[in-house]
Structure to design on (221 residues):
């Protein structure tokens, strides 16, 4: 399954089966997490067989059930922390989909359980990603027209529209899709709108754009 097909097939899932992750699946996720942590300076952590975080009133309000596995996106506090967590977290989300798992980005509707994952002084937990074997495969979200999030003068190359199309497949908070991409002299500028978790969303959509447009075709402005 190529990355674009993975993006099309991946949808947010909130209800999970009582089925533990296989050892080879956990190993593949942990290997990628280790790689990402070295590349990014983040301290992403995989938590398995932990039912308490999503067994709370907030989790039930968010309509979560059966969640016992999740990824904690932790890093040193900085201006770009949320964006980096979005970018690298979505890389893990799409890997999880390729491994046969389902996922959901979670901002508020979970409980921090002491001692389950580590947050050092000067670090921050941004969001978590619930994952496991979904009770369903989820449903596609509605999307804005590509032209409404793209700012170009004249005719844009195919790779640019491929990137925008992929960005619109990305999950965003409340499906707001508050982002824009503009193109000038081969450089792409991605901007976040205003609202909750739009910086995390920006990282997510930038990963989608980059994967579909091809890193060799452009530079980020």
């Amino acid at each position: 399954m190529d990355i674009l097909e993975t993006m099309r097939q991946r949808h947010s899932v909130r209800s999970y089966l009582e089925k533990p992750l296989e050892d080879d699946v956990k190993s593949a996720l942990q290997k990628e997490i280790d790689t990402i942590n070295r590349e990014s300076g983040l301290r992403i952590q995989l938590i398995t067989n932990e039912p308490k975080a999503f067994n709370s009133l907030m989790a039930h309000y968010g309509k979560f059930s059966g969640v016992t596995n999740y990824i904690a996106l932790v890093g040193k506090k900085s201006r770009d922390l949320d964006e980096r967590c979005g970018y690298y977290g979505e890389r893990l989300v799409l890997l999880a989909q390729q491994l046969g798992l389902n996922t959901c980005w979670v901002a508020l509707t979970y409980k921090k359980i002491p001692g389950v994952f580590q947050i050092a002084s000067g670090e921050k937990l941004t969001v978590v990603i619930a994952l496991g074997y979904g009770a369903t495969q989820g449903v596609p979200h509605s999307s804005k027209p590509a032209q409404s999030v793209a700012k170009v003068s004249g005719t844009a190359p195919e790779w640019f529209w491929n990137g925008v199309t992929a960005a619109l497949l990305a999950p965003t908070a409340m499906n707001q899709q508050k982002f824009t991409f503009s193109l000038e002299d081969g450089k792409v500028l991605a901007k976040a709108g205003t609202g909750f978790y739009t910086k995390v969303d920006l990282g997510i959509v930038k990963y989608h754009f980059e994967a579909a447009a091809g890193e060799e075709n452009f530079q980020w402005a």
